[in-house]
Amino acid sequence: MIRKMYMKRFIYFFVFFLLLTLSLFFIMNRLSSKTLEENLIGASKNQLDYVTGILDGIIYEANMYGVQYAADSDVRFYQRHVIELSNYDSQMKKNDIVDRLRQTLLSSRSIESIGIYWKSEETFLSTNSTPEARLPFKDVHERGWQIVGNSLYYFALYPYIQKSGQTEPTQYIVGVKLNTDYLKNLLKKAVNNDSSNAFFWFSPQQVWSEKEIDNELLKAVTKMLLPQPEVTIKYDYHTNSDDYYVLSRYIESIDAYLITYTQTNDFLQPLDRNRKVFFASILAVFTLGLVVIFTFYRNYYRNIRLLERKFSQVEQGNHNTRITENTDREFYTLFRSFNHMVTEIQDLFVSLKTETELRRSAELQQLQAQINPHFLYNSLFFIMSVAQFSPDSVMRMSKHLAEYYRYLTKLDRHEVTLESELQFAEHFLIIMALSKKMEYNIDLPQELSSLPLMPLIIQPVVENAIQHGIEGHQGAHRVRIDVRQTEAAITIKVSDDGKGLSLEDIRSLEARLESDASPEGIKGVGLWNVNRRLKNTYGEHSGLHFTTNDWGGLSVLLLISTSEVKGDSSCDY
To answer: Which pLDDT score, from 0 to 100, does residue 159 have?
Structure first.
């Protein structure tokens, strides 16, 4: 009787659900249309963001090349070389500059040409040898992006930086011309299908597109444009027979708009056909559903619900659960397999946990063992050399050397504090400063001093800054350590005023650090160890990053993900 009552309620619910489905279908159809349109708009926005990201990269690349050659010493002194050197040597200087410009173009598909124009001498060097190539340079009076003809240029002027209160005349102009065809090809990535189109709008006279644009639509859209950088704005445009949605993105650096528009009529027609099919099928589903539900409930529903509850318990971490209830024959094999599966999962988790702990411990011990204070002998030789005439230096060196190695003897601990790790690095810096002319500065906010940290993570980076930065550059003598905290991460920046690295060298170094295997030999092992330990302990979002600092040297950023620090502050390092 109880079973029949439950089944009766279930049938009532099913009938009510079908009637409710019929009554709400028209609303659902409209909501589906709206959802489809929102999905289309979302997809279009994603494509627009993707193209904007590529365009930002192209703009940055052009800016970088313009600034690079505007500050290049060979370019800056080229006119002096022309006067002072022989014809042959000055021609070789010219060929060298042009060859470097051409080498730049080999690595970029988006840049069509690069030229340098000296205004007073009217000298022009360019990768484009046509006479018309110099014409855009003659009327340039300020740096920035300009549309000349049907081409987009970035102009950098030297002097690049004007002194306060003074205006120096422009000596030469570096112009980077973008490949117009390449920019137009980017528009293909911003459209969904044949019902969409995209174009760049610079001004009423400058519109770039690979497809023909309806004039009325263009006029209507350009009247609605708003210069809001970093924001994608949506507009609606309607005609007597068609509906469109328009998306625009203002690109402030080049004072242009990236615009896409899509005709929505073609996308909504399938919904109308689906509505007709739905009415034809709902009656058959209603009749068949009653029979199927009754049979399903009687023979399968109860056992499936039992299996679902057990799976939910396993999903929540209860691997001791088992199915012991009496079941029908058709479910006996399934339940027995479930019990066997849970047993295997339980054994696997135990084995995996043990194996992971052993592997992680062995790997971190191996990585930590590779960090060796190899400067011991140099420190001892320094003590010997100054022992007779500077006892004070001997005492200072001995004190900090003792503190340095006393710290190393405590490495059986898996966790230290940021303050103690920086004190260890300071001992190293003091030892190095005693034997060579060097200045250092450490900036640690008080609220971060007790932050838990793995040991031996900062000193290798400081040692690398001295050995490969300061010692490799004459006159270099400064090291700075800055600790900062943001919402997403804690950064420890180690900067030096050494010889620094080029952008290409930085990318090559980061690629080597991301390798699973340590570098061959001893070069690069220290940084590779630090990067690997950061990722193993604090997650893949942590690690080392490299930038060029204001001194012209290299800054190494140790990035520690805040979520990992907060989420697992008691983990084994």
So the answer is: 84
